[in-house]
Amino acid sequence: MSAIYSSITELTGRTPLLELRCYEKELGLKARILAKLEYFNPNQSIKDRIAVSMIEDAEKSGKLRKGMTILEATSGNTGIGLAAVGAAKGYKVHIYVQDTVSIERFQVMKALGAEVSSMSDIPEVAKALRENNNDYVAGYAAFYEKFSKSNENVFIVDQDANPSNPRIHYETTGPEIWNDTDGKTDILVAAVGTGGTVTGTGGYLKSKNPDIKVIAVAPGENSIPSEQNPSPEEIAGVHPFENIPKEFVPSNLDKNSYDECFRVETAEAYQAARRAAKTDGILIGASSGAILYAATKAAQRKENFGKTIVAILPDTGLRYLSTNLFKGE
Length: 329
Ligand code: PMP
Description:
Blueprint: E1 17-19, H1 21-27, E2 32-37, H2 47-61, E3 69-74, H3 77-89, E4 92-97, H4 103-111, E5 115-118, H5 123-131, H6 136-148, E6 154-156, H7 164-180, E7 187-191, H8 196-208, E8 213-219, E9 260-264, H9 266-280, H10 286-299, E10 308-313
Parallel strand pairs: 2-10, 3-4, 3-6, 4-5, 7-8, 7-10, 8-9
Antiparallel strand pairs: 1-2
Helix pairs in contact: 1-9, 2-3, 2-7, 3-4, 5-6, 7-8, 9-10
The protein binds 4'-deoxy-4'-aminopyridoxal-5'-phosphate (PMP).
4'-deoxy-4'-aminopyridoxal-5'-phosphate is lined by residues 47, 75, 77, 191-197, 236-238, 285, 287, 314-315.
């Protein structure tokens, strides 16, 4: 039987689970850490999954039609996924990014044919960002407000609220983990940006076994902008979701889908990513490092000895070579 695909959209998902044997050995861990390597997606991140589901659902519902422009504000990976799927399907794609986005993401989106602008080029968005310590969700609200009221021929993707985001994780990421571990997952660790991964994957796994524990990763105190520290080195794609005003929590985050919020500082995330590159030869991004750090801390808890921990690692380290991620020991 031949195995020829006809569109990049058919290549998302079915990513492998790799037990980080050498990492476990080096740290003397007594629990298993299984890394779900989302950089095996066609454009090297977990966001390829939602790019396909959000675009194809919008086509089905008639919200997206030929000749329209796909519009989104994103910290990068979603923009790359949308640029690729938009290219393959013949749509124009216009992505607004935060000024902190790594140069690699910017270049990749452009190479895939998207128009790329800065969120702060829009005066209303710049004002919202300024007034809310550069909080992405606050900036996004202003972005959405502006374009949803304009007469431009655009489809605003709105990944923070679009139900096709958690849905695809419920339908693919969750079942892949359940099947690949023969239902023997004890703990899931994933990060929260839009909340889609945790809500969909955590929700699915809990529907199969309510005893599965879900740890949702958030940035640490010193890794989010504050009045004292307005521009810390942030973990791209990961946002706080507890102890913040309700309107800044993405509506795609279902609070029932996780049991614990675990906060990780940027330096801790970098340390874990650097270690895994050297022990097991996986080159992962900053949020993956944060997730691996949280998974490691979970593995070191006595009550978790002998358990199986699945860590969803969202993207590739190649997207961070211009940052400080791999600069240092
Ligand atoms: N890590 C990276 C690198 C991301 O781009 C994102 C998405 N913002 C996340 C983690 C978080 O995933 P989600 O949006 O599904 O919560």
